[in-house]
Amino acid sequence: MSDLYLLNLQFLPATASDYDEVMSISGGIHDGVDYLPFRYHEWLAEPQRRMFVARSEEKVVAFASFLLVDGGVTAVLQGLRVAPWMRGRGIAREIQKFCFNTLRTNHPGVTKIRETVEENVPPSLLSKSRLLHSKAVVSVFLPNDHLEKTTQLLSCRLLSVYQGRPPVPQSLSKVLRLLDDPRTAEDLFPKGVLIQDLLPLTTHKCNIELLARWGIAWVYSKPSDLLTNPIEGANSSSISNLSEHSTLSCTSSGFLSLSTPPFPVPLEKGVYRLNIDLFGSNPSFAQAHILHHVTEAVRVLPPGGSIVCFVFAEETLRKPVMHYLHGMAPFPAYRELLMLERTLEA
After folding, report:
1. What does the alpha-carbon distance between residue 318 and residue 142 come to, in Å, rounded to a whole number?
2. Does 235 score more than 60 pLDDT?
3. How far apart are the two ends of the chain, measured CA to CA in Å?
4. Would you kindly state where each structural domain of the chain is located, as residue ranges?
5. Can you point out the beta strands (E) in the chain?
6. CA 283, CA 317: separation in Å to the nearest integer?
7. Which has more confidence, 189 or 228?
8. Closest-CA residue to 186 (of 263, 281, 97)
């Protein structure tokens, strides 16, 4: 604590003018595909979010934010980072403590803290949190000069084993109607949780409306969209590979997915990140939805752009997704995303 006292930390609301300093302490975060450079100014405009910096000797040495969700009873922590030369000195703990104190003072209705973390969670964090859910993560790099071949390959792989209607984009009203059906909601979100673009939410109506304001693309396949017979002429090897991971059935559950348009990341100029969030358990639908989102991303990608694609899915879909994306360059990142929650004590 004496070391922290000597640092004379000041915690202040983050502003637009802090952008360059926050970026200067963020090098290498999230393996070069950090979302904050693109989201920072958007976050400043969100009325439900608060952003803070820690300064020492007039320099930004840490950043953190929280977003109010679930109708104001939960705060989601996001974007935490500490300057490389200040790590290991307890600064992350101090700026989080400042966030918690701000919540207690200004948002007394908040009772829970939620966050997503990558694998290898520190025991100290697990000891004070409960694990709500986890998602498998499969990530690949799609270079610009292979995008056309990639979409063609994914399309051929899907057509060789899948006969069904394509996924359908959904309006906000249709998504809310889907979630009003308890059976559908349970099939899609077994634990009532929804992770979008690393943001840990529940299926509370206000959270769905929040995502809609951000321009999230919702795509759905109903159970009857998946037909029972493979396309005539499909090769036996393709059918064998599919049968290892799925069962084609009209009575299978529906499938929901969502994504945002690809956004630029610091890895290198012209590289964009695409997050695809899958909800459901049917591997055939998973493949169809991945193809839909990749195709849409390529359609809106600026000329010369390449894509780092992250697919977040239930653990049971890890092998089918990896099989579908086989041959594409793996992007070395985390393999699992954990959703943690703790109580905000008074």
Report:
1. 19
2. no
3. 23
4. 2-110, 134-342
5. 10-13, 49-56, 59-69, 74-82, 112-118, 130-142, 168-170, 193-196, 199-202, 217-221, 255-259, 263-264, 271-279, 306-313, 329-330, 336-343
6. 6
7. 189
8. 281
Hey, what amino acid is at 258? L
Q: With pLDDT > 90 as the criterion, what percentage of the chain qualifies?
A: 71
Residue 15 in tokens = 């502003």
- Please say whether the dihedral angle defined by the alpha carbons of residues 254, 260, 49 and 176, taken in this order, is positive or negative: negative
Q: Which residues pair with 276 in a beta bridge?
A: 259, 311
DSSP strand pairing (112-118 vs 74-82): parallel
CA distance 334 to 321: 15
- Per the CB < 8 A criterion, the answer to whether 111 and 73 are in contact is yes
Q: What is the C-alpha to C-alpha distance for residues 154 and 152, in angstroms, rounded to an integer?
A: 6
Match 């922590």 to its residue by tokens: 77
Looking at the structure, give the CATH architecture of the domain made up of residues 2-110.
Answer: 3-Layer(aba) Sandwich (3.40)
Q: What is the mean pLDDT of the chain?
A: 89
Half-sphere exposure (Cβ direction) of 119: Cα atoms closer than 13 Å: 7
Single pTM value for the model: 0.90
Residue 249 to residue 243: CA distance in whole angstroms: 12
Does residue 74 have a pLDDT over 70? yes
Contact call for residues 309 and 300 (beta carbons, < 8 A): no
CA distances from 337 to 106, 115, 279 (A): 30, 10, 14
Share of the chain above pLDDT 70, in %: 91
Alpha carbon distance 324, 339 (integer Å)? 26
Task: For tokens 């709500």, name the residue.
Answer: 132
329/246 Cα distance (integer angstroms): 25
Cα separation, 68 vs 180, whole angstroms? 23
